[in-house]
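Hey all, sorry for the wall of text incoming. These are the three entities for the joint prediction.
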Amino acid sequence: MEMWIDRTKCDGHRLCAELFPEMIRLDDWGYPIITPGAIPQALLPHAERAVAGCPVLALALRRQERKPGQ
Amino acid sequence: MNNSILWYTTRGAGAVSLILFSAVVVLGVLSSLRFETTSWPRFLTTGLHRNLSLMALVFLALHIVTAVVDPFTHLGWLAAVVPFSSYYRTFWLGLGVIAVELLIAIAVTSLVRGVIGHAAWRAIHLLAYASWPIAVVHSFGTGTDTLSAWMLVIDVVCILAVAGAVVARLLARPPDPLAADRARFRERVSRNLPR
Amino acid sequence: MTNLSLFAGPPPNAGAERFADHTRRLGHRPAGNRTLIDTLDRSGLVGRGGASFPVGIKWRSVHSRSRGGAVVIANGAEGEPLSRKDQTLMTLRPHLVIDGALLAADAVSASRVLLYVGEAHAAAVAAMSRALAERSTVDTSRATLLTAPPSYVAGEETAAVHFVNTGVATPTATPPRPFERGVDGRPTLVQNVETLAHAALIARFGDEWFHSLGLNHATGTILLTVSGAVAKPGVIEVASGSTVDEVLVMAGGVRGKARAVLLGGYFGGWISAQQAGTMVLDPKGLRAAGGSLGCGVVSVLDEVADPLDVSARIMQHLANESAAQCGPCFFGLRSLAAATTRLARRQPEHGDLPQLHRWAAMVRGRGACRHPDGAVAFLQSALTLFEPEFAAAAGARGRRAS
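and here's what came out:
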């Protein structure tokens, strides 16, 4: 599973970085920088908490897919 | 004897509900203000808001159930569901029914937030600003303890807390730093399309 | 001179080619179906809106998802300030564009065609509108003209789709991409108008003909907007595979001495005058080499102009054109533009230059669309090519320690 973010919805509430600091940190303007790639099994509960904690529902957990060739 | 226990529970649970829901409203305002300090992170505000509201719903349920089954009030379940249908203190109780029905809408939409989306959830959630004052007025009118000192203290503290939070929210700059620019851009690129 | 294809026919001062002349010169539009997609594969045609994506693959991806109700958007928004090729094409050859859009609709099983023309391009809007009115009701019943708001991102494919759906031309997060779910949730093909015009000719004359127009391994012709320090700026059609130098000769030659060339517009990047000499303008080849022809802008910077000043103005424009939906784009581009402007004025703040590199890396890939990526790529090309000038500006006298 990997973390997906709808950047048009993200308003910089910053809860995700508090709840999942292992893979989410903040840039100079308070918006999340998400470490790309698969989320380790042990960290999934924190990822789920970050997704649930986002006040604007900007985050989602997605199954990793091969990048489609369009 | 039985009657008294039910009666005291109704009044007590009502008071506790008022305190808890007042705290919930204050925490909701703090959340929209993006309140945080070094020792009070953002998730503490939202987490407490959620947990206290669930706790408050439990006390509210207790308040309603004990009121309905209490033989002294002759309320019946219908009175708890249809506003202004009770014989006992019709108007003030009716307000309570309205307040609770608004709360149920808020609670249900919060549980299915992921399905209905943020915009719909928020529209219903703002009804909290109606539900809380209606509940307070309900407590003045139906409350047996309205004029007792302890209840007055509770009322004053709760009202001041919520009023203070709302004033802070109204006076604060928009907490979303992109709000103005986003609106301005949307204005620029919006057109009325013929359908 | 090149074997013209798009601009073959009446000269530019004759204005828009009328339907009768178009049909007499080229014949009626042939059937568009699955075999056209195979022909496009073989022709090597790639998208001319900026991404240079193979057209056959794109059409097939929409066709495979269509159940008869797909949608085609002919993208003529052209929000790039330095580009004029799409508006020129639509003004002079509107029927080629409309043919291409209708052929695409047949080939991908679309029931609706939308001609999305930038509202600021008045002549193009008028020409396309008149041309559509000249067509039969069979064609006009499924094609509509709508005008795009004049903003840089209005031509972004998700913004075009969002505009049709809601009347607001802002980009949206992906997935889903338009070819999966677009207008009214249907598979939607968003294709640049020049690409569609090429397709309209390939459908008539075949993929081998298209190959024959290009030089060496490149196929077909490309439209370019040549501007800056050249004698005859404007839109020209050249054989794909031409070098930048050959293009500049066709534009009347450089005025003065060339210092650098901006390739691809604000969304492209700088190359040095020496690189320009031998750089081959082949959209497919450039893409394979990790570069991009973008929307075909070739803008010459002479030795008199200040490259930092030009770069700062472009960064400022790109920052102002952010849709302000995504924090990293809006605030990142603003910070980058402000620092670049300070350096251009030789009034840097302490740390401006390293911050440019740092913010550029911080902003890339963190918007919903590719707008911040394009701006960052442009800035990085400037930082690379004009490294000595940037370094000198960063060490300029009058700097304030912050």
